[in-house]
Structures are given as structure tokens and as C-alpha cells.
């Protein structure tokens, strides 16, 4: 029996993390991880750097509302 690869190769593109205070989280990812913040229209913030993306949003601390995948 031969192993088969996935029908659609998918890769994690970004994850959303919620927190009750966005400013310290933005500062951490900016300063410690070298990521650039971009405000989004829904009140969340996209933090990005080369081949790294995370969305920070207002909400219950530690919540992870979604993961987004990139399909080739």
C-alpha cells in the first residue's frame, strides 16, 4: 500500500487570538517578534512579518476564534 498525500495541500496561514487588552499584545508581537501592526475594519489588528501572520482581536482572553489555511 502506498501513502497518498492530501487532495489539497494546505498550510496554516494565520490564527486569530483574542485578548481583553490589545495594546500590550500588539507591543509584544511588534517588539519581540518584529511584526508590523495593521488595523482592520472589525477592530482587530493584523500583525505580520515575513512568512508570519497573526490576527489579534478584542474578546475573551485566550479565545482562538479561528485558524485560516492557505491552499495551493
Task: Describe the protein's architecture and organization.
By secondary structure, the chain is mainly β. The protein has 1 helix and 5 strands; from the N terminus they run E-H-E-E-E-E. Strands 2-3-4-1-5 form a 5-stranded mixed sheet, covered by helices on one side. The longest helix has 10 residues, at 22-31.
> Runs with pLDDT <50, length 5+?
none
**Number of helical segments with 4 or more residues:** 1
Shape: elongated
Query: Structural class, from helix and strand content?
Result: mainly beta
Helix content percent band: 10-25%
Mean pLDDT across every amino acid position = 91
Strand content: 35-45%
- Spatial strand sequence of the major β-sheet: 2-3-4-1-5
Terminal-residue CA separation: 26 Å
Q: How is the main sheet built? A: 5 strands, mixed
Order of helices and strands: EHEEEE
Question: Any idea what the radius of gyration is?
Answer: 15 Å
Count every beta strand, where a strand is a DSSP E run of 2 or more residues.
5
Amino acid at each position: 500500500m502506498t501513502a497518498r498525500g492530501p487532495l489539497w495541500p494546505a498550510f496554516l496561514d494565520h490564527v486569530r487570538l483574542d485578548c481583553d487588552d490589545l495594546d500590550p499584545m500588539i507591543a509584544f508581537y511588534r517588539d519581540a517578534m518584529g511584526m508590523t501592526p495593521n488595523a482592520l475594519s472589525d477592530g482587530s489588528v493584523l500583525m505580520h512579518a515575513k512568512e508570519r501572520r497573526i490576527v489579534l482581536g478584542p474578546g475573551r482572553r485566550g479565545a482562538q476564534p479561528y485558524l485560516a489555511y492557505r491552499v495551493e
